Amino acid sequence: MVVPELGLWRAAGPRVVRIAEAVRPRLASAVATVKPHVTRLTRAVRTGPAHLPRLPRPRIAGTWRYTAGAATAGLVLAAGVVTAAGPWDANGQRTAERDLAAAPERSGGADHGGTGTGTGAGALRPAPSAEPVLAALGGAREAVDTGKAAPGARTVSDVLGPLLDTSALGGTHTAVVVDVTTGARLYDAGGRKPLTPASTTKIATAVAALSALGPDHRLTTRAALEPDTRELVLVGGGDPTLTAHADSGGWASLRTLAAHTAEALGERGVREITLSYDTTLFTGPALHPIGVNDNLAPVSALAADEGRTDDSAGGPAARVDDPAADTAAKFAAFLKEDGITTTHPGPSKASTRAQTLATVTSPPLSSLVERMLTNSDNDIAEALARHTALASGEAAGFGGGAKAIATQLRALGLPLSGTAFHDGSGLDRADRLTADLLTGLLGKAADPRHPGLRPVLTGLPVAGFTGTLSDRYTDGAAGVVRAKTGTLTGVNTLAGTVVDTDGHLLAFAFLASDTKDPLQAQAALDATATALAACGCRS
Predict the structure, then answer these.
(1) Which tops the pLDDT comparison, 49 or 246?
(2) Checking DSSP bridges between strand 220-226 and strand 272-278, what pairing results, if any?
(3) What amino acid positions are annotated as catalytic residues?
(4) Rounded-to-integer distance, Cα 435 and Cα 211, Å
(5) Contact 214, 451 (CB under 8 A)
(6) Which stretch of DSSP H or E encloses residue 185?
(7) Cα torsion at 361, 362, 365, 366 (round to 10°)?
(8) 96-149: per-residue pLDDT in tens?
(9) Are the C-beta atoms of 169 and 395 separated by less than 8 Å?
(10) Under a CB-based contact definition with an 8 Å cutoff, are residues 336 and 259 in contact?
């Protein structure tokens, strides 16, 4: 039997052992204290409620001892429950824990999708409001000591300077560290110098998309019937997470859309149909300037499973040449399974008179942003750049998306001097960002005045646990550093957040160009972020 979470336990093993050894004497004492009371209560319960003894009102000191003993014993029981609670999911959280946490939460933002909503049992629930996440940042603003380091204490420059001054980071590198709570700049080495950002560009794409559309926005794929012609049009809504897999995993399902469409056609007595597909939501070239590449499918408003030719859900994979045609062919096959015969599908455009028969809707944009950042998903990034363009009145292509991202960031008051966007994913080597902008983006996402941007922080990979950082930081700062990685040939970048030993939330951005060995450069950046986590020093 394969147990995927063993890597997590191996990485955490030494710390778990140390914690267990430290609390063992106290646990033994607590168990000894609580055991007689547990025994009496057990006997009382067995004999029924009529025989329960009347307990005198305890003194305050006695109450504290009972509470402390019961709480400690509860930890022992909780440890056993946690062990048996089920597997970790892909985000490093136990599935049962996640479901339990979501169950009582019924409030949230509005659904901007326009379809698939309602009050029925199967209705889509709005995304939870972002306000509670990191809400403590606002309350801590005036309680934090932002003064200079005490005489003789190490500064951030003392710690980071030697680590960044290494040949592993190539001929050019920049770095900025900012205290998110106070806005104080703790370190700046070339922070306004624009460099190739690689996939840290996705942080900018995420902030722009959330600003333009809102975290609760949903993307809809629909099937529409043209009146009098019996032409069924599969209309792409630009959902990069649409899936044809039997297990949809909570994403919009092409199989479900086909089943509901077949049912609607059956009610009309239609068993044969002309099938076409509409991809006109997006414009411009579908192929990224890098050309055919396993890291990104041709960008289309209609694509299932990102045009992958295997069962993978992330990472490089061979892609189909025409994701829309491939998706329409799969849709036709699903309709056939439900008793509907179709023609070979071809491209078309749904008219304004077309009647929508069925729809499927994506999870909220906040979920798409988190998936994009955690897995460094280029397909989602390019789709979100186009949706940002549409919301900003720009053409939904590479150029329009890049222009819209800059427009949205400028409206937020972020520093754009020297920056240049050419795509949403960071695969274009002509992109230019600054460490100043990246830390500004992270700070804006943590600002209580912009709760809708919080998925930018919650989507960052967790060191040693999730996404592109799952196999990094296993020897230090695991679970403490959260950061977006970026890698192209000769380029290594890292931008994210870390809580230092004083409990300060820091935003950092490290960009390096002309690197020779990507693994050595990656290790150097990881060592720098780890040192920042252990620093506890000021500017």
Answers:
(1) 246
(2) unpaired
(3) 199, 202, 376
(4) 21
(5) no
(6) strand 185-189
(7) 130
(8) 333 333 333 333 333 333 333 333 444 444 444 343 333 333 333 333 333 444
(9) no
(10) no
